[in-house]
Specification:
heterodimer; A: about 240 residues; alpha/beta; Rossmann fold; 6-stranded mixed sheet; 4-stranded antiparallel sheet; globular; B: about 400 residues; alpha+beta; 2 domains; 10-stranded mixed sheet; two-stranded antiparallel sheet; about 55% helix
Chain lengths: ~240, ~400
């Protein structure tokens, strides 16, 4: 589980001192699906960077599955990101020169897997997002939705317990966005803990719990009662209709 | 990240930016090619020199006026013809022959060309091993009677007698005078050190050549070059010393400097080696500058690559790349650019050396040391100039890198 206490993050930019987070306490259990909402500048991305082990808090403690992450070295953080966390970004962040397959293999390469194991696992991950037939395409040859599915396959390939998504539907039309959200819901049903950062209320409603952030503080934290769900029993979301 | 993965990614990058990478490599290409060509040429030239020296032996002594000591060369003193007979008796234990080099118009049945002529004694063939293809070499009688006879150089014979393989007995004109061809010298492997002769050199009796030569600027008949070949190599130093003694007794010295150079063959080899060493150093220095500039170019391109791929670095870090992974990736890329550049340079250098060997008829020697050095230097430059950009890449903060557009 994720356990954050009294976390602050202060950026010094020349003379100005920006307090992005002003003491955040948060606990997220395994298998939760949490949306974080807030206007821009509310600190939601900063919070995700810290929880995602991309960044360290200025003060406060962060425990991930009982391990203190807030004091880890760069290499230890890299290890955490590699093994325990998968990221999905608004701009997909795929490497343009590589095929979908190699993009998905990337975390496995840094995990030190053999070429053969990488290939098998990456293929499985792409099949899970219904992209088996696009494996050898480069990002430029894929649609936005397909790119984001490649990114999701990459986030999942190392079987992390946590997937953090920062505005994953921000660059997609609403229908494709819905497909992506369907995939997240399915993943959550399979036991993956998901933290979703968004400023769109419609998207946030796909989660089970909603956290509001404003000026670096949590201003609201409640379960979502009217959750948007899809007919998940009909099989995998995002399959090519 | 393993090495083969690094190679694969670097290769992708290089292919992706072909022109840019090629231009970056140029400095490396030129530098390495120059080093390889110079080293290979040096090896081959030395081998050829040693071969030449071994064929004539180290038992030669070359005597000539030490013209360098005079501020005004017209003051130089040269040996006189009577010194020849005197030295013959004063210095036993050696064959000797004077050499008078000149060029003159030669003609045969309307065909005219400038010929390189060596006026020598018959002993000259003992000194320099001149092989005869047809007829004979100059004899004692030819000299004594100032016969107008000539032993043609191999190429000269081919040039003047394209249809007659054996022109012995034919008459050619030299400076308007009729000469009988008495022999043709066989084709020789040209040696880089020696008397300067080659397959274009023809031989006349020394006395005949002396009579034809215009001696006005020497103030009379002189001996310009004199060669000795000692019978016993152990006597080489002693004989060289007696020659110097004799000349000093005859002509004294000039401002404390000997008026004549008495050079042993091995001294010439040493001189040659020294000249070649200096040449190698100078060209290597120029190549070194080229490599330095090439290296800076590579550092520059790597810095550009790091800046261009900041986001990529962020992505890689986000999915678990450690500092060392990123460092290795960029370092491998820099080294590969250098290795490819250096590799092309090695091939170009080997090609140049091969062409030189073919033209000079030298035995081709593969410059193993040069190639090893070329590969080593390439890797070294890649590492040295790649480390800073790679460290810069490795140190990037993933959050900052990911937000870079």
């Amino acid at each position: 589980m994720i356990s954050v206490s009294a976390i602050t993050k202060i950026y010094i930019m020349g003379e100005t001192r920006v307090e992005a987070l002003r003491g955040v306490d948060l606990a997220i259990n395994r298998r939760e699906f949490v949306s974080v909402m807030g206007p821009s500048g509310s600190g939601k991305s900063t919070l995700m960077n810290i929880i995602g082990a991309l960044d360290r808090p200025s003060s406060g403690r962060y425990f991930l599955d009982g391990v203190d992450v807030s004091k880890m070295s760069d290499n230890q953080l890299a290890e955490i990101r590699n093994k325990m966390i998968g990221f999905v970004f608004q701009t997909f962040n795929l490497l343009p020169r590589m095929t979908a397959l190699r993009n998905v293999e990337l975390p496995l390469m840094y995990a030190g897997l053999s070429t053969k194991d990488r290939r098998t696992k990456a293929q499985n991950a792409l099949e899970m997002v219904s992209l088996a037939d696009r494996m050898y395409h480069r990002p430029a040859e894929l649609s936005g939705g397909q790119r984001q599915r490649v990114a999701i396959a990459r986030a999942l390939v190392n079987d992390p317990g946590f997937v953090f998504a920062d505005e994953p539907t921000g660059n997609l039309d609403s229908r494709t966005g819905a497909e992506i959200m369907e995939i997240f819901q399915r993943l959550n049903d399979d036991g993956v803990t998901i933290l979703l950062v968004t400023h769109e209320a419609d998207i946030a409603k796909h989660a089970k719990r909603l956290i509001h952030l404003r000026d670096g503080r949590i201003t609201g934290d409640e379960p979502i009662t009217e959750r948007t769900t899809y007919g998940l029993d009909n099989g995998w979301a995002g399959s090519n209709q | 990240m393993n090495l083969s993965e690094g190679f694969r990614e670097s290769w992708d990058m290089i292919r992706h930016n072909k022109l840019r990478t090629f231009l970056t490599m140029l400095g490396m290409n030129i530098g390495v090619a120059a080093v390889i060509a110079v080293m290979a040429t040096g090896l081959m030239a030395r081998a050829a020199v040693m071969e030449g020296v071994e064929s004539i032996g180290t038992s030669l002594i070359w005597v000539r006026a030490n013209t360098r000591v005079y501020e005004d060369r017209s003051n130089a003193i040269y040996m006189k013809p009577e010194d020849l007979s005197a030295l013959q008796t004063e210095v036993p234990g050696a064959w000797l022959s004077p050499l008078l080099r000149t060029r003159s118009e030669m003609g045969y049945r309307g065909y005219q060309d400038i010929a390189s002529l060596y006026g020598v004694w018959p002993t000259y063939t003992r000194l320099w091993n001149i092989p005869i293809a047809y007829g004979r070499f100059i004899t004692q009688q030819d000299g004594d009677q100032r016969n107008k006879v000539i032993a043609l150089g191999y190429n000269t014979a081919r040039l003047f007698f394209p249809d007659e393989p054996n022109p012995v007995g034919s008459i050619v004109t030299i400076g308007g005078r009729a000469f009988t061809v008495v022999g043709v010298v066989a084709q020789r492997e040209r040696s880089a050190i020696g008397d300067g002769s080659d397959d274009d050199t023809s031989y006349l009796p020394y006395e005949t050549a002396q009579n034809m030569f215009d001696w006005t600027r020497y103030g009379g008949v002189r001996v310009l070059n004199l060669f000795f070949k000692v019978h016993d190599l152990k006597q080489l130093d002693a004989i060289a010393f007696s020659i110097s003694q004799y000349l000093y007794a005859q002509y004294g010295s000039y401002k404390g400097q000997p008026r004549f150079l008495v050079q042993k063959a091995e001294e010439n080899i040493n001189t040659f080696n020294k000249v070649f060493d200096i040449l190698t150093i100078v060209i290597s220095l120029i190549a070194g500058i080229s490599l330095l500039v090439g290296g800076i170019g590579i550092m520059n391109i790597m810095l550009v690559a790091v800046s261009e791929r900041t986001r990529e670095i962020g992505i890689r870090k986000a999915v678990g790349a450690k500092r060392a992974d990123i460092l290795a990736q960029f370092l491998v890329e820099a080294v590969i650019i250098c290795l490819v550049g250096g590799g092309i340079g090695i091939f170009v250098g080997l090609g140049v050396a091969y062409a030189i060997a073919a033209v000079q008829k030298w035995l081709y020697v593969f410059p193993l040391v040069g190639v090893t050095l070329g590969v080593g230097v390439s890797i070294g430059i890649g590492l040295f100039f790649g480390i800073y950009p790679s460290m810069k890449a490795a140190r990037l903060d993933p959050v900052v890198a990911l937000t870079k557009e």
